[in-house]
Fold this protein.
Amino acid sequence: MQNTAEDISNAASGHKANLSNPNTSEASKAHSKEVLDQMPDQPFYGKEEQNVSKNPNQVAGGLKAAINNDDVPQSGKDKAQEKLDNM
């Protein structure tokens, strides 16, 4: 494990899954809780990674796809259209 943000997030996900799994032992759950308690409180994917500039053409394409997707509720389509209009 390289301890990147992704590695830490994956480990946390595994421990959280263990806590909610009815088939794991109480000792295993106690260990997972202990590990999670020792992890930092801040999000594993920091602001540095969220500020990566996005390709506006890809963002627009995703919004247009959401608008035309029958599985997206109307409220989601309206939000996507609003974001597209503000680009």
Q: What stands out?
A: Confidence is low (pLDDT under 50) at residues 46-51. The two ends are 40 Å apart (CA to CA).
